[in-house]
Amino acid sequence: MYEECGIFGIYPKDLKTNIAQLSYLGLLALQHRGQESAGIAVGSRKNILIYRDLGLVAEVFKKDILSTLNGDIAIGHVRYSPKDSNSWENSQPILQQFAGGSFALAFNGNVINKSELSSVLARCGKNFNGSLTDSRLICRLIEATKEKDLEKAVQKAVKQIKGAFCLVILSEDKLIGLRDAHGFHPLVLGKIKDGYVLASEDSAFSIIEAQYIREVQPGEMVIIEKNDFKTKQVFPSTRKSLCIFEYVYFARPDSNVFGENVAEIRERIGARLAIEQPANADIVISVPDSGRFAALGYAHQAGITYQEGLMKNPYISRTFIQPDQALREYSVKIKLSAITSIVAGKRIVMVDDSIVRGTTSRKLVKLLKRSGAKEVHVRISSPPVNFPCQYGTNTPDREELWTNRFSIEKLRQWIEADSLSYISLEGLTGVFQKNKPADFCTACFCGRYPL
Ligand code: SF4
């Protein structure tokens, strides 16, 4: 079961603002990472309270609910749900008892040795009610250690896990953040009024006026207590496998992921794409929103005017995040419209971040041509997605991936574009300044899985 999610944690000191309200704001800034459920847990010396439900953050948390969630520490979660698993039971955070009391956990990623671990737990007499999500599995592993000390219990539990994961955990007096040994997904640490914040992306910091400190390192556990934080290297340092798709698609442009700004990286990818895959065109347009910065980079590099040729309805969710095929088809149709006065009579370069099933590209090319575009040249700011992700991103099965089944020329014909081309893998991994090509996971493009 794949979960690509957003996680958040906060332990401030003497803040007057309700902690659940700050978590709510943090989750709003992470909404792009998951839209099916949202939840907040708050901890105090007395107890841990959790509220979670299906829906967007603003739908789940009404004002009266937030004011009842009082505590000193909080964690939050937004969840993308894989096919057929969008149920309340699978929303997070999750409450769990252990030898030392109770804790709440929120998780992002994918455990790849789940069946092995659940068999081990079953042999210890642990049975699961409902579907076994990765988050539930980790909770039970922590419980099964029988350790009274939460830090020790978490360390013992996560050492059994193979996969890609970031966690935030709260107890009645502690906030813990942890990133897997290879650092597939991002987790950052910030400071707020003598306290600390953790989040999948630092876009969640600016909204609550927290300052970015640094990334939680791969394999590092951060433990935040009343006045300070300490860190432990839980896993020995190993080869990094940073998810390059965070830059291509997932992360917000204003976030700094793995030490580099997402918008700047997307512009550099677009510029590289223009060098590798030029086109004779009058204007460059983007598929909003994740194609925008790559399109800007392409236009600057190619010396072609950038224009907004497609208008996005901001109230429709991102298609890639929609869990159901019927909904996905529907949302593509209502999400984007062409601005006829801009596109009519023009030769257009349309820059998009990726082609997964090809249905969106086909509809957009048709839309632009119906609106009078003379030519549409599709340029993709990532290489063809040929392989499914095993590390927490919900890509379709291999058979559903267009470029895995057909040639690029066949796909071009199907989407009815005048030309179609992609950035090379070397081009994509070569645009970074702080990370080397070998630091990235690129398995969905090349099939070389780091684990
Ligand atoms: S396979 Fe692709 S989406 Fe999955 S972690 Fe690797 S780069 Fe990211």
Model description:
By secondary structure, the chain is of the alpha+beta class. It folds into 2 domains: 5-238, Aminohydrolase, N-terminal nucleophile (Ntn) domain (Glutamine Phosphoribosylpyrophosphate, subunit 1, domain 1); 261-446, 3-Layer(aba) Sandwich (Rossmann fold). 29% of the residues lie in helices and 26% in strands. The strands form 6 sheets. It has a 7-stranded antiparallel β-sheet. The protein has a 6-stranded antiparallel β-sheet with strand order 5-6-7-8-12-13. Helix 4 packs across helix 5 (134-144), helix 5 (134-144) crosses helix 6 and helix 9 (262-276) packs across helix 10. The longest helix has 15 residues, at 262-276. The protein is globular. It starts with a strand and ends in a 5-residue tail after the last helix. The model has no long low-confidence stretch (mean pLDDT 91). The structure holds iron/sulfur cluster.
